[in-house]
Specification:
alpha/beta; five-stranded parallel sheet
Amino acid sequence: MLGPVDWAITNRCNLHCLHCRGMGKEELDKETLLRVAEEIPLLKPAWVIVEGGEPLLRRELFDVLEIIRRKSIRVHLITNGMLLDRDTAQRLADLDVNLMISVDGADSASYETIRRGASFEKLKESVAVAGECGILDSCPVTIGKHNRGQIGGLFEFVSALGFRKITFLGLKPCRDYGRYVLSGREYEEVFYSIVENQRKYGIDVFVDEPFFKPFLMEHNIAYSAAGEDGIRVPDTSGCIFGGYAFIETNGDVKPCTFAPVAMGNVNEKSLVEIWRDVQNSELVKKARDLSMRGSPCRECVHLRECGGCRSRTFALTGSWTAADPSCPLVGR
């Protein structure tokens, strides 16, 4: 069963973020772009994420959104907010699009250092406009060594802005990854801080890390099912490598946004054919086979709830089946 489809529709961006994974050198032409938008509903995805680069820079963005929304598929648009105005926000509202505006820094200095070229004041204006138009969804925050000490400040800031949900994303493979990726001990500290501040501010929290649920279970910390209030954990909490489709700006289809492998390209095959190839891929089967995990993952009681992040593990170890080096439960 397919989870979401995550689509980077443009390689253009108006910022230079510290944690950028890098963009493909090419974009799909208009004809192919719209054909792919028509094909996405055929996969019956749980939802669709539209991102970039900066998706508001893609001229055909609203054509893509209209095509996908015709089938009543839930759409989340991730933007840095620098190009959002009231007219754009209202057009998104008319299509019932959920807008996610990335933050990453709790104050002007840190935010503008992490998101080079961004304006802290414009961020606040865009969040206000999105809130007034009723489209403001969660606040994506990418956490690494550069901002791990700002959890409390981030909660305070985004709460004051009007966000009611934070989505924490562990830093994934990017330029200088080894310099910024969190260790297991640092993840543990970050998770404790997230739990503490969630209780303090009452903002709903989702943490996109496969070992977050095992962390909560180990420490007897209550959590809610996806869609409920509080600390939200989906039923399928482990790594979804190969369980969703990521479409790169040039049309490559990958088993993970951060995987350095493509299973096909929409310029050459239909998205339906490529998704079939993903499911039949020996690499995907190998990466998802929990019996092949290396130690200490293999012996962990939480193996089936977690399994570790495959793209991070490959980036740090060169192996698709090794234990996740950033796991906060190792050594407990």
